[in-house]
Every structure is written in structure tokens, then in C-alpha cells.
């Protein structure tokens, strides 16, 4: 760690434009399988280390999503992971996404919810703070839950038509169902929404956001982003679909 800080200090000393970057960058994220593990491993953590390698040390902080957003808006963290574009007006958003959220709908097979349009008019739930109704272009009867406990029972008892989350997350919920219940349920990918690292609206946040965009363009051209995805066996196609037009 000490060696990394010294390298970052030397880089800032040699390049005045980097002096606005903090020596340690604190980034908050919910724990997502394969993406942001609590031990600091995961595709997103590796990608951010590639982006900021040699100029600032990435310090991961694992916490619920709504808390991560709140701490960044209060200026107590530099950024959070997994935001939709312009989700929070007080945050700074880069030009480059880092991934696409592959959203899955968990529902009874009898409901035949196999596409985004099939959610129209349906009772759709998601986790508190996700606000899926703002990003999915269909009219739903939308509600949010503080936790996923009870979602399976609501679906099986026809009190909810579909539950929306990332494909991995809805798959994990389905895996907890008893075999006879799981046989009644299915998961279908219904949308892909670009995901961003959202930065605090501070001097350091501005510097981090600008440097992030500069490095993401460079790493994409060099094929480094694809290598990080391959290292984690993470679907790369969604990212290709959401890179800025012309790239």
C-alpha cells in the first residue's frame, strides 16, 4: 500500500493536472456477485484499479446501495458504483459507462413475462432505491421493498406479477426456492441499462470524473477493458452495446 501511495505522489508531482486527484479514492458499492465483492475483488474493482493505476489508490467500501449514494452526496465518499445515468442530480456522471445492467424479471411461468413490454400494467417490484420505473419505458404498477425476503411468497401467491433486478440477483433469489416452487417460476432478461460510476460534486470528484473518462477511452482502445471482463468471465457484449456512439 505504501508503495502505491508513493507512486501516486510521484505521478502527481510530475503532472500538475493530476494534483487535484486525492491520494486515496474512497468508492462505495453494494456487494454484487462477480462485480463488487466485500473483499475488494470483482470485475468493477479490477477495472477501477486499471483506470486509476499509479495516480490514486482505490479504497473499496461495501454497504447497501442507498447508503452508498447518500455518503457520496454528503461528500463522505468520492464515488459509488452502479448508478443509472443522471439518477441523482447532485452527482457527477462520466461520459463512459463501465457496464450494462442486464435486468431480469422473476415471475410465474403462467404470467408469460418474457419481455419488457410484457411488464406493461403489471405489479412490478424491486429493491428500495432502485427506481426501475424511471428507467424502463413501460407503465407498471411499481413498488419497492427494503429486502428480498418474502418476494418468492408474493410471486407464488399472486400478490406480485414480477420482481426486477440484475440477472445474477434474481437468479440467486430463484435458487432459494423449494424445487416445487422453482418449477413454477422463470427468469427472463427484459432490458439492458448502462451502469456508471457516479462521483461526488466536489473538486476531487470533478478531477476523478475527468480522469476516469480519459483513461476509459484509452483502455477501451487498447483492449484492456475486454481483458478485465474476460478475467472475470463477465459478459462483454452488453458493454459494447453502450459505449459512446462513434467509439
Verbal overview:
By secondary structure, this protein is an alpha/beta fold. It is built from nine helices and eight strands. Strands 2-1-3-8-4-7-5-6 form an eight-stranded mixed sheet, sandwiched between helices. α2 packs antiparallel against α8. The model has no long low-confidence stretch (mean pLDDT 90).
Compact overview of the structure:
With 247 residues, the chain is an alpha/beta fold. Helix content is 34%, strand content 23%. The chain has an eight-stranded mixed β-sheet with strand order 2-1-3-8-4-7-5-6, with helices on both faces.
Any descriptors?
247 residues; alpha/beta; D-Maltodextrin-Binding Protein, domain 2; 2 domains; 9 helices
> In this structure, how is the largest beta sheet organized?
8 strands, mixed
The fraction of residues assigned to DSSP E strands is 15-25%
Q: Tell me the number of structural domains.
A: 2
Q: Output the CATH topology of the largest domain.
A: D-Maltodextrin-Binding Protein, domain 2
CATH superfamily of the largest domain: Periplasmic binding protein-like II
Output the helix-strand order: HEHEHEEEEHEHHEHHH
Q: Termini distance?
A: 35 Å
Derived from helix and strand composition plus strand pairing, the structural class reads: alpha/beta
**What's the CATH first level of the largest domain?**
Alpha Beta
Amino acid at each position: 500500500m505504501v508503495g502505491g501511495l508513493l507512486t501516486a505522489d510521484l505521478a502527481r508531482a510530475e503532472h500538475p493536472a493530476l494534483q487535484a486527484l486525492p491520494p486515496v479514492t474512497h468508492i462505495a458499492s453494494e456487494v454484487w456477485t462477480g462485480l463488487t465483492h466485500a473483499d475488494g475483488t470483482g470485475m468493477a474493482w479490477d477495472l477501477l484499479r486499471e483506470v486509476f493505476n499509479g495516480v490514486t489508490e482505490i479504497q473499496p467500501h461495501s454497504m447497501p446501495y442507498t447508503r452508498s449514494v447518500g455518503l457520496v452526496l454528503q461528500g463522505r465518499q468520492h464515488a459509488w458504483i452502479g448508478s443509472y445515468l443522471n439518477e441523482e442530480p447532485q452527482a457527477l456522471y462520466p461520459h463512459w459507462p463501465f457496464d450494462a445492467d442486464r435486468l431480469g424479471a422473476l415471475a410465474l411461468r403462467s404470467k408469460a413475462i418474457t419481455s419488457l413490454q410484457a411488464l406493461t400494467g403489471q405489479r412490478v417490484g424491486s429493491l428500495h432505491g432502485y427506481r426501475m420505473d424511471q428507467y424502463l419505458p413501460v407503465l407498471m404498477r411499481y413498488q419497492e421493498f427494503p429486502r428480498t425476503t418474502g418476494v418468492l411468497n408474493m410471486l407464488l401467491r399472486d400478490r406480485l406479477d414480477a420482481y426486477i433486478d440484475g440477472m445474477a440477483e434474481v437468479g440467486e433469489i430463484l435458487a432459494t426456492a423449494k424445487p416445487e416452487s422453482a418449477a413454477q417460476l422463470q427468469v427472463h432478461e427484459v432490458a439492458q441499462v448502462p451502469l456508471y460510476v457516479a462521483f461526488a460534486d466536489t473538486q476531487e470528484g470533478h478531477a476523478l470524473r475527468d480522469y476516469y473518462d480519459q483513461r476509459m477511452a484509452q483502455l477501451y482502445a487498447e483492449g484492456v477493458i475486454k481483458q478485465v471482463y474476460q478475467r472475470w468471465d463477465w459478459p462483454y457484449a452488453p458493454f459494447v452495446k453502450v459505449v459512446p456512439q462513434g467509439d
